[in-house]
Specification:
Fumarase C, Chain B, domain 1, 458 residues, 62% helix, two-stranded antiparallel ribbon, 3 domains, Fumarase C, Chain A, domain 2, mainly alpha
Length: 458
């Protein structure tokens, strides 16, 4: 039987089933780097404060650095008997330097230790997510820059509404990207206070210098309430919320890609490298990557709900339930990471079928609003103009025509106010480029928006 580091009060070993159920090393092993970083900073502080000797501090720091290197070289095997990453590393340290290693845990608890590890980890993965989102955003901008004159129908209710450009459509997702970046930055800020020094829940009698440790680990400050320091997982929930919203954005784009590459739309053609085939139908080219992104979004929602449910009934301060914070974080990060990497490459490699987009914009009376605007500019109230164009559309439907194909006599049969300038007004290029106010689809406005967004993504 392996003696637990906390086993002094116990006269009987834990059941193997208890070990398996209680242990978190199978998943929290990925926190090894953050745990060693925190331990190094703590050991340095213990030496500075003369809580342990300077030599002991240096020996601990040096050995922890060696352990970190050995872990990264796959030279260390973690033990389930040591339960978690914290006790595994402490056990390895003690094996190497004897009783000096046991002094590392002076003035701290696993409660404030794991809270520190998780905050460091969340800060690290927020930074990684921001970098991936930047790459995704710039990829969308690259596509947009090449399609500022690619006219397509804009939709409401999935019905053709008004003509826009593909660039303008993609820039809507860039706005989402910008908000995602802000959210992950805010999440990092929420994690940016040091819990170490809070102890189990009531700090310690040792003269710790928490501000030194915070500076060593790159935290902006320290947690000011020891109970909250060990029991807070809001920053984890913030991360899961940020991931969920990011995945919702990716899912919306993925759904549009699924539609666009269908024979019914044929707006885009996916690269073979990001498509799959059918096991029975030889002709099929399936948008499985987009569908998987859409499907995995629900998985990240589950991660958020899982931790929200775990936290909702926990009294202060630390409870073992909080061990359940890690797997949702790890899963959500891994899922979002592979999704955004893959969809970025998929978008960059797909072909834009510009002619098909333009033809679709010509159908569905997407220029009807512009016909109404022409009437308003000729003195009619908008409500009257709306009614007149509605009559024109009905006439076109009954006679299998478009607004572009109507003769001037047909226009004037509905209302004599019409003259030949109506044709220029309802030309798709005019419809797009006259919408030249901030936020609109006109080429000049879109080009300016692309430049502003590139600067933001820097």
């Amino acid at each position: 039987m392996t003696k637990k580091l906390w086993g002094g009060r116990f006269q009987k070993g834990t059941d193997t089933l208890t070990d398996d159920f209680n242990s978190s090393i199978s998943f929290d092993a990925r926190l090894y780097k953050q745990d060693i970083q925190g331990s190094i900073a703590h050991a340095k502080m213990l030496g500075r404060q003369n809580i342990i000797t300077e030599n002991e501090s240096k020996t601990i720091v040096k050995t922890l650095q060696e352990i970190l290197k050995d872990i990264e070289n796959n030279q260390i095997h973690f033990s389930i008997d040591m339960e978690d990453i914290h006790m595994n590393i402490e056990s390895i340290l003690t094996e190497r330097i004897g009783d000096t290693g046991k002094k590392l845990h002076t003035g701290r608890s696993r409660n404030d230790q794991v809270a520190t590890d998780m905050r460091l980890y969340v800060k690290d993965i927020c930074s990684e997510m921001i970098d991936l989102i930047k790459l995704f955003g710039n990829t969308l901008l690259d596509i947009a820059d090449k399609n500022t004159t690619t006219i397509m129908p804009g939709y409401t209710h999935l019905q053709r509404a008004q003509p826009i450009t593909f660039a303008h459509h993609l820039l809507a997702y860039v706005e989402m990207v910008k908000r995602d970046m802000i959210r992950f930055k805010q999440t990092s800020d929420m994690a940016d206070s040091l819990p170490l020094g809070a102890g189990a829940l009531a700090t310690t009698t040792y003269p710790l210098d928490r501000y030194f440790v915070a500076q060593e680990l790159g935290f902006k400050g320290v947690c000011l309430n020891s109970i909250d320091a060990v029991s807070d997982r809001d920053f984890c929930l913030d991360f899961l919320e940020s991931v969920s919203i990011l995945m919702m954005h990716l899912s919306r784009l993925a759904e549009e890609v699924v539609l666009w590459c269908s024979a019914e739309f044929h707006f885009v053609t996916l690269d073979d490298a990001f498509s799959t085939g059918s096991s029975i139908m030889p002709q099929k080219k399936n948008p499985d990557i987009a569908e998987l992104v859409r499907g995995k979004t629900g998985r990240t929602y589950g991660d958020l709900i899982s931790l929200l449910t775990t936290m909702k009934g926990i009294p202060l301060a630390y409870n073992k339930d909080m061990q359940e914070d890690k797997e949702p974080i790890f899963d959500a990060f891994d899922t979002a990471k592979i999704c955004i990497k893959t969809i970025t490459k998929m978008m960059a490699s797909m072909h834009i079928n510009q002619n098909e987009m333009h033809e679709a914009a010509k159908g569905g009376f997407s220029n009807a609003t512009d016909a109404a605007d022409w009437l308003v500019k000729h003195g009619l109230p908008f409500r009257d103009a709306h009614g007149i164009v509605g009559q024109l559309v009905y006439y076109c439907i009954e006679n299998h025509k478009t607004l572009d194909s109507l003769s001037l006599e047909e226009y004037q049969a509905i209302d004599p106010i019409f003259d030949r300038t109506i044709y220029e007004a309802i030309d798709l290029k005019t419809c797009v480029n006259q919408r030249n106010i901030v936020g609109g689809p006109a080429k000049t406005i879109v080009k300016r928006a692309i430049a502003i967004n590139r600067n933001f993504l820097k």
